[in-house]
Specification:
This protein is an alpha/beta fold. The chain has one domain: TIM Barrel (Alpha-Beta Barrel). Helix content is 41%, strand content 17%. It contains ten helices and eight strands. It has an eight-stranded parallel beta sheet with strand order 1-2-3-4-5-6-7-8. The longest helix has 18 residues. The chain is globular and about 45 Å long. It starts with a strand and ends with a helix. Bound molecules: zinc ion (ZN) (2 copies). The site of one zinc ion has 5 residues, from loops.
């Protein structure tokens, strides 16, 4: 049994075929899902999807790309969303200096505000980091009581170690399976009690579906790749990653 710890189920192609998406996932033994919000509107959509389905949990947050668009009261909206039982984390938050869709100073401000919410509510965070290793580490270090997950990890081993040392988990997505990726070498060094798997659907479809719209069932291919990297049976990776997700997000 696997948990897709990061998917965006409110995207049209996924939500319009949710029953099909979930039953195809079940065939691949992916049975629980975390629907991650990237702005207030989408976080509300995650909440309503999760309220309708016991196997789906949700998070509320503002993605660095959306940081430029926050309106007054956005932090209150996250606090309100976090009151619901199916809401298990704050995020996705973070920094993306690859695309810099929001100004870096705005990204940092919105990231910090969400770290404060997580600290205040004693909830885990889901963070996104692209080409921003040093600044992400600096922000995380300022909130030492908070833990969470480095979603869609794509940095180097030193950065992974910095996150691990601060108590964070490392989550791998489809890019772990890409040809010539540096990530298998990194993944090999991550302790099995600190690793998670995800799809980031509808993005980043793993091999053998690379380039096509992704869906949560394909967490399976990420987990199989991890098993191959660690040279252990798939069932063992499934057990570890599921236990880790249950513990981090306090799933019931
Ligand atoms: Zn992301
Ligand atoms: Zn995402």
């Amino acid at each position: 049994m696997l948990i897709d710890t990061h998917c965006h189920l409110y995207y049209k192609d996924l939500i319009n075929d949710l029953d099909g998406v979930l039953s195809r996932a079940k065939e691949l033994d992916v049975t629980r899902f975390i629907c991650v919000g990237t702005n207030i509107t989408d976080s509300k959509a995650c909440l309503s999807i999760s309220e309708d389905n016991d196997s789906i949990f949700a998070s509320a947050g503002v993605h660095p790309h959306d940081a430029k668009d926050v309106s007054d009261g956005w932090t209150d909206a996250i606090y309100e969303l976090m009151e619901y039982e199916s809401m298990i984390a704050v995020g996705e938050m973070g920094l993306d200096y690859f695309r810099n869709i929001s100004d870096p100073d705005v990204q940092k401000k919105v990231f910090r505000a969400q770290m404060r919410i997580a600290q205040d509510l004693n909830r885990p965070v889901i963070f996104h980091n692209r080409n921003a290793d040093a600044d992400v580490i600096e922000v995380l270090a300022d909130y030492p009581e908070v833990i969470g997950v480095a979603h869609c990890f794509s940095s180097n081993l030193d950065t992974a170690k910095a996150f691990l040392n601060m108590g964070y988990y490392i989550s791998f997505s489809g890019n772990l399976t890409f040809k010539n990726s540096h990530l298998p070498e990194v993944a090999k060094a991550i302790p099995l009690n600190r690793v998670l798997v995800e799809t980031d659907s509808p993005y980043l479809s793993p091999v053998p579906h690379r380039g096509k719209p992704n869906e949560p069932g394909r967490t399976r291919f990420v987990a199989e790749k991890l098993a191959e990297i660690h040279n252990i049976p798939f069932e063992e990776i499934a057990k570890h990653t599921t236990e880790n997700a249950v513990e981090l997000f306090r799933l019931t």
